[in-house]
Design goal:
12 strands, alpha/beta, 2 domains, Nitrilase/N-carbamoyl-D-aminoacid amidohydrolase, six-stranded mixed beta sheet, 15 helices
């Protein structure tokens, strides 16, 4: 270990940047669909040794002193995000004649931009660097700050946050009932980087023992929580049907296919339950599954009423149009409708957090003048965002908390209304991204919201992964990617979380300050020894 560390520490220039890139690429394998969290135990110690090798001249200016550390962090981040997000390019090939030119911006440009957050992480860490356990704490603080900023700056994009690598399965997800993802990010980096202490720093025994204790507590708490009785369904029980139609995205955008797509959803809705199964009470269709403006097509509501049996409820993703006033084009919303067995819309909710460049175009007037459009360019102006999140109320008074598409990755945006809902409801259309890691990563992150909120999740995806997940993140029933069909299951109940969101926020700041103090004391001790 010491010999390998020495070789990495002595790297310089392009060699150091390339190894940083490879470390980031390796770290990506800790995320779905691979879930090899051990990869992080290799990549982060190597990152520590790369930072150990940074040297600057006392006479250098601020920029020249920061640049070597920033370049290591950026190289690591570029490799990590390039390896984890290349599949975004698929969305630009659905209408290749219009958007293929933007493919390099998605596949290379976005990872290059996101790499700046990890450049900042390493710059922060380097400013607190020492020769012992303090530098591991410093790296944890740096990445904790960077991931926290990534969760909300520029509308936020916390996709594949480092902490998810420490939670590849329900056994390792239960800590999210106590800590938020921001805290788990910090502690995960500390644990992943701790092996760098072996033979290359003071305080190895303390650092490795602390990391081992954190990891043991992480696993032990998961084992304890999963050993508790499974959450029981509410009375009366509610059977939910997931409809996964597997409609190709190009077909969804073809006007000539709209009627056939609608009938395909209706046919799956009317399919009989499996032998011995109970008739579903609630049927859930994916995001934008109704392929036209429903309120402009009253015959479609009549068809829905014909298919639904007495007492059944349809929850479906749709595009909603709203009059914007005289002379102005309508406003369009990415929405969810609740429709009863008489074909009446009894509740609705609009998407709050839109995808930039996908559902709307930032700085639209300027970028349109340059010839740029969003992927939702078929609707003038793209989608509009709702000003606040509405709760879906079903006949009988029970409620669902709606999360449309990638809203499910924003843990901090799930407000107190979720505690009043029977379940989280996530409808999505990942057909844009094909059979790639994207849909698996999306499902994994959505799955974790159940542990954080103590509520089950109903998830319907056009091409997958559709699932009902209980309040512990355990899969109840699911449909794999590209599997056309339905899945029925009794909706499980809720269970209490260990801490609320406010307490988790305080734990995040306490953890950050604690690790910052460890890093600062270690740094001061190093300076004292030098003097």
């Amino acid at each position: 270990m010491e010999r390998l560390a020495g070789k990495i520490i002595l790297l310089s220039g392009a060699s150091r940047a390339f190894v940083g890139f490879l470390c980031g690429l390796l770290a990506m394998f800790a995320q779905p669909p691979f879930g090899i969290f051990a990869a992080a135990f290799v990549s982060f110690p190597m990152l520590v040794w790369l930072i150990d090798g940074v040297t600057t001249h006392p006479d250098d200016g601020v920029v020249r002193r920061l640049l070597p550390a920033a370049s290591i962090g950026w190289s690591f981040g570029f490799g990590y995000f390039l390896g984890g997000l290349w599949w975004l390019g698929n969305a630009f090939l659905v209408e290749a004649d219009l958007f293929a030119w933007a493919l390099p911006l998605a596949v290379v440009g976005l990872p290059a931009f996101l790499g700046l957050f990890y450049a900042l992480a390493v710059v922060i860490a380097r400013g607190l660097w020492s020769d012992g356990i303090g530098r591991i704490a410093a790296l944890a603080v740096g990445f904790g700050a960077a991931e926290w900023l990534r969760s909300f700056l520029f509308t936020g994009f916390p996709w594949n946050a480092i902490g998810y690598a420490a939670m590849p399965m329900p056994l390792m997800m239960q800590s999210a009932s106590v800590l938020n993802v921001a805290t788990i990010n910090m502690l995960a980096v500390f644990v992943f980087a701790a092996p760098a202490l072996i033979g290359t720093g003071k305080g190895a025994r303390i650092g490795l023992s602390f990391a081992a204790a954190l990891f043991a507590a992480h696993i032990g708490y998961g084992y304890y929580r999963l050993s508790l009785p499974a959450p029981q369904p509410l009375t009366p029980e509610r059977t939910v049907r997931l409809v996964q139609p597997v409609i190709d995205q190009a077909k969804k955008m073809d006007d000539r296919e709209r009627a056939a797509i609608f009938e395909e959803h209706l046919a799956l809705t009317a399919a009989p339950p499996q032998a011995g199964g109970k008739r579903p009470d609630v049927i859930v269709w994916p995001e934008t599954s109704i392929p036209f403006i429903l309120t402009d097509n009253p015959d479609a509501l009549t068809r829905i009423a014909e298919v639904l049996q007495e007492g059944q409820i349809l929850v479906a993703g749709a595009v909603r149009a709203e009059d914007a006033g005289a002379g102005l084009p309508p406003r369009y919303y990415n929405s969810i409708y609740v429709i009863d067995d008489r074909g009446q819309i009894v509740s609705a909710a609009d998407k709050v957090h839109l995808v930039p460049f996908g559902e709307y175009l930032p700085f639209e007037d300027v970028l349109n003048s340059w010839g740029l459009n969003s992927l939702a360019a078929s609707m003038p102006g793209g989608f509009s965002a709702a000003s606040n999140r509405s709760i879906l109320t079903l006949p009988g008074g029970r409620t669902f908390y709606p999360l449309i598409c990638y809203e499910a990755i924003f843990a901090e945006e799930i407000d107190g209304k979720a505690s009043l809902a029977e379940a989280l409801l996530n409808v999505t259309n990942d057909a844009w991204f094909g059979d790639t890691p994207g849909p698996r990563q999306h499902f994994h992150q959505a799955q974790l919201r159940t542990v954080e909120t103590g509520a089950p999740m109903i998830r319907a995806a056009n091409t997958g992964i559709s699932a009902i997940v209980d309040a512990r993140g355990v899969l109840v029933v699911g449909l794999g990617y590209n599997y056309k069909g339905v899945a029925d299951a009794i909706l499980p109940g809720k269970m209490p979380t260990t801490t609320d969101s406010a307490t988790r926020g305080r734990i995040f700041w306490f953890t950050g300050v604690f690790l910052l103090l460890v890093a600062a004391i270690s740094r001061r001790s190093l300076n004292f020894r030098k003097n």
